[in-house]
Amino acid sequence: MADYNPTPHVIPEGENATPLEVVGGDCTATEKLIIVMCGLPATGKTHIANRIARYINFFLAMETKIFNVGDYRRELYGAKLPAEFFDHSNEEFMQKRQQACDSALADLTKFMKEDGVRVGILDSTNSTRKRRDHIRAALKTLKCKIIVMETICDKEDVS
Hints:
Order of helices and strands: HEHEHHEHE
Number of strands: 4
Radius of gyration: 18 Å
Shape: globular
């Protein structure tokens, strides 16, 4: 009973009506969206991704899935990694982080190729242009809309 929406909203009619494509009413099987989270660590990417996924899944009844690259990294290499694992000058660790990203992208691609209206969220820092270009190239073959959403935390007391 995954498609059940306990509180369906009323779609307005007339001049200010919401297009059915936005609320999931009459979409074609090709209506797909990928949200690529981007931002420095601890700026709320995962929190925002979870809130977006819950909203879309509950209110719009669209299948939504989050692909957290950190989860893939922990699965591949363990949870306790040394600080140098995240050093951009270390080629060996850069390749391992790239492998975790590629695993997440492969699962995201597989998810997005399934039939039906769906939203996939790639949750990772994606803070370098090289990484974002790699993601765009990997997703180029999919017929999906892609949004890159950057999170910024400029509150000194939080950081």
